[in-house]
Specification:
single chain, alpha+beta, 2 domains, five-stranded antiparallel sheet, 37% helix, 35% strand, elongated
Length: 147
């Protein structure tokens, strides 16, 4: 007898849930949320494309006065921090500016695992920077090591 009464209780609860649920409304709210997310992504994609076009068009603030240079790694140490699966390394560099002027620079960089083998004291790497602002240093891993 208990099994049949439990069955009818479950059926009654199911009917009440069906009456109280608003599947159509829930789906409409979810669709509105998805539309909002898609609009946000479209805006972000447009902003990224605009930024890429600006970079391709020429220098932006902070880019004027940048020079290509070679840097020698004098020291490096992992910081113990990971950013998006990349290891953050603190580098001590001696940058050789055009004209042979040496400039010591400390620089932190989040590196992919494929870049870490290039970190050897005495190794040279390609960089760009504004000589007036050593903190503007960027390592160009796409270029081969300068001679």
């Amino acid at each position: 007898m208990g099994l049949i009464s439990n069955y009818f209780k479950v059926m009654k609860l199911t009917e009440e849930m069906e009456k109280k649920s608003d599947v159509k409304g829930d789906l409409a709210r979810m669709q509105a949320g998805m539309n909002g997310a898609n609009q946000t992504l479209a805006t972000m994609a447009a902003q990224r494309q605009s930024a890429e076009q600006s970079l391709a068009a020429g220098p932006i603030d902070g880019e004027v006065g940048r020079v290509d240079a070679a840097a020698t790694i004098t020291q490096f140490a992992p910081t113990g921090v990971m950013i998006a699966g990349r290891t953050v390394i603190e580098l001590q560099l001696l940058v050789s500016l055009p004209g042979g002027i040496p400039l010591p620079v400390a620089h932190s960089a989040a590196l992919d695992m494929g870049q870490i083998p290039r970190l050897v004291p005495g190794a040279r790497i390609a960089v760009t920077l504004n000589p007036a602002d050593p903190a503007s240093l960027r390592i160009d891993w796409s270029k081969p090591a300068p001679v």
